[in-house]
Design a protein that fits this description.
13% of the residues are buried. The chain has a three-stranded antiparallel beta sheet with strand order 1-3-2. The model has no long low-confidence stretch (mean pLDDT 80). Helices cover 51% and strands 8% of the residues. The protein has four helices and three strands; from the N terminus they run ααβααββ. The chain has a domain of 69 residues: Orthogonal Bundle (Arc Repressor Mutant, subunit A). The chain is mainly alpha-helical and 130 residues long. The protein is elongated.
């Protein structure tokens, strides 16, 4: 036996009208408003914490710039990461921190051009811009 499918009277491409959302009581509206304000405050606090932690934990690019400043010649990202981790300039829990630094450096070079802190000298090797 085949079951008959019930078809709607709408034509193809027509959408259902959106349901109106209204608060059922003034108390619910106030509670929702308070929850939104609380979430905004929490988000601001988290942003402030991240900004405050930045001085303690520099970004991978800042650490790479520091390492390249201490060395005379160009380095590969793997060499930079080894030195950054050994000196405590940066920490990473990722599986491929060298790839992370490589991607970030090439992204900065592409975005900032000649204003970038880094220059790609040869395949896989970077140095500080003069």
């Amino acid at each position: 036996m085949k079951k008959n499918k019930i078809k709607s009277a709408k034509g193809p491409g027509e959408k259902k009208p959106a349901a109106k959302r209204t608060a059922t009581s003034p108390t619910r509206a106030k509670t929702a408003k308070k929850a939104t304000k609380g979430a905004a405050k929490a988000q601001k606090a988290n942003t402030a914490k991240r900004r405050g932690d930045k001085a303690k934990n520099p970004s991978g690019l800042d650490a790479a710039a520091k390492v390249l400043g201490e060395v005379k010649g160009p380095l590969t990202c793997g060499e930079m990461v080894e030195r950054m981790l050994a000196k405590g300039y940066w920490s990473s829990n990722g599986k491929t921190p060298a790839a992370t630094i490589y991607a970030a450096m090439t992204r900065e070079i592409a975005a900032k051009g000649s204003a970038s802190r880094f220059v790609k000298v040869e395949r896989g090797k970077f140095t500080l811009a003069k």
